[in-house]
Amino acid sequence: MRDVARPAALDARRRARDLDRLVAEGVDVLVVGGGVTGAGVALDAAARGLSVALCERVDLAAGTSRWSSKLVHGGLRYLAQREIGLARHSARERAVLMGVTAPHLVGRLPFLVPDVAGRDVSALAGLGGRLGDAVRLSVPGGRRSLPGTGRIGPEGVSRLVPGVRPGRGGVVFWDGQLVDDARLVVSLARTAAAFGAGVLTGVTVTGVDGGAVALTVDGGSTTVRAGVVVNATGAWAQRLAPGVRLVLSRGSHLVVPAARLGAPTAALTVPLPGSRTRFVVALPQPGGLVHLGITDEPVAGPASEDDPVPSDAEVAQLLATVNRVLARPLDRSDVVGAYAGLRPLAQSAPAGDGPGGAPVDLSRRPLLAWDGPVLTVVGGKLTTYRSTAAQAVDAVVTRLGRGAVRSPTARLPLVGAAPGRALARVDAAARLVRRYGTEATVVAGLGEEPVVDGRSETVGELRFAVRAEGARTVDDLLDRRTRIGLVPTDRERAAPLAAAVLAAES
Ligand SMILES: Cc1cc2nc3c(=O)[nH]c(=O)nc-3n(C[C@H](O)[C@H](O)[C@H](O)COP(=O)(O)OP(=O)(O)OC[C@H]3O[C@@H](n4cnc5c(N)ncnc54)[C@H](O)[C@@H]3O)c2cc1C
């Protein structure tokens, strides 16, 4: 394993140099797709000493990885399906993220299931939460990572989520929450770059023929050599691997001002009407917002290049469900933004081959499938990206005949990561420490003026994004390095300044 020299600055000069090197020398592993899966694979492979290039057609976290619910799950859902092994696996990876890999990016989030949603529902949540606690206690690092499940009274409910109809108690269980899913991807890519990986955004892989990989880049096309290609293109995976069968489903969230729910400090969890296991959750976010999700709508493939959008019916479903427990119902005028992502559900056999003729759904486990020199890695979860990547790179080193170098990533902090005590000593605003960890002082030194009046993002964050995080466009700055774009009216106000920073820094 190589040592990390220092955090890599992904800037225009480095991109040009990495591109020249890729064309001239080729690589052991060319990873296609700069989401959490691709960035995780690039890091794992580079940290094992392989030469690596990560090619992403748009930008880091341009796909599903920025449209998630931003939860680092302990696998409660798997417990409901009696998948204890999967739940332990999730809990183990959650502990790695919270304890080693990215303690700055992952916080603790209480989930409130209020009795006003139905006493049977909160009782079941309590049972599930306690099972989840038992699983957490059984994995390394799990004991101290989160508090235990418990009941609270009516005052506790009003304190955690003041907008809930008063007078009844509820159940609280705990899980992990990312400050921002796109930041995890950017941190992974920069850490991979620190181990020597080329990180090339704006590069589309158009085909693979033996060891020759066709790319389009900056308006031209070229061919490069790679020992192995890892296809981590998520919902678009079939373009490079037509043999892989995917079924797509859309998951949508609404963005509402936190003030409308009384500035909650817990995730409000409400079952869909008629269900005791499927929930809508109002998730508190930084910057005085709440994200309300999530839906599960079948989508006819193939995936379009455009960002998916929530349908009218999904908006109605999300609002109606959360309104079941609110004292003052939300309506459409409260919605200040909305987003959606595509789940690629991988099938190993034709639909209809499952028990009782049902589709064989492997969505809970990632699918790894070779086709010639292309290894497709699709499905899985953001929470478990690290183990998915390790599994993929195990297969890659075997294919390349590089012996059995084990994945080092469970002990590898990402750029900016440090134990809680060290983070507490970083001399910068807590908000910046949560997003940049030990690099927060550098970001603060680049300018603390707000990008938009009334919001907390700073000009320093935009400058840092161009200088060190590979941002090349206004969209990169507003939709991926910061998340101002989740509120379109704020995005409009921020765009001129973002353009000016880009021009000055590029
Ligand atoms: C609505 C929703 C909510 C979710 N919530 C959670 C959650 O709370 N917690 C959790 O653990 N998991 C969650 N998940 C799952 C998680 O988000 C995904 O498993 C994960 O983001 C998938 O990442 P990926 O890298 O495989 O795909 P993507 O993030 O989609 O990345 C694929 C990338 O490939 C690029 N690409 C495509 N074609 C090419 C090409 N030819 N050349 C170059 N680049 C290409 C795309 O631009 C894209 O950036 C959620 C999923 C959805 C849909």
UniProtKB/TrEMBL annotation:
Q: Which reaction does it catalyse?
A: a quinone + sn-glycerol 3-phosphate = dihydroxyacetone phosphate + a quinol
UniProt entry keywords in alphabetical sequence: FAD, Flavoprotein, Glycerol metabolism, Oxidoreductase
**What GO annotations for molecular function exist for this entry?**
glycerol-3-phosphate dehydrogenase (quinone) activity
- Matching Gene3D superfamilies, A to Z? Alpha-glycerophosphate oxidase, cap domain, D-Amino Acid Oxidase, subunit A, domain 2, FAD/NAD(P)-binding domain
Q: Where is the FAD dependent oxidoreductase domain?
A: 28-351
Q: Name one GO biological process term.
A: glycerol-3-phosphate catabolic process
Q: Which cofactor does it need?
A: FAD
Q: Source organism's superkingdom? A: Bacteria
Checking InterPro entries in the record gives:
DAO_C, DAO_C_sf, FAD-dep_OxRdtase, FAD/NAD-bd_sf, G3P_DH_FAD-dep
Residues in Alpha-glycerophosphate oxidase C-terminal domain copies:
408-505
- One GO CC term, this protein: glycerol-3-phosphate dehydrogenase (FAD) complex
Write down the EC number. Answer: 1.1.5.3
Family in the record? Belongs to the FAD-dependent glycerol-3-phosphate dehydrogenase family.
Classification via PANTHER family: ANAEROBIC GLYCEROL-3-PHOSPHATE DEHYDROGENASE SUBUNIT A (PTHR11985:SF35), GLYCEROL-3-PHOSPHATE DEHYDROGENASE (PTHR11985)
Name of the protein: Glycerol-3-phosphate dehydrogenase
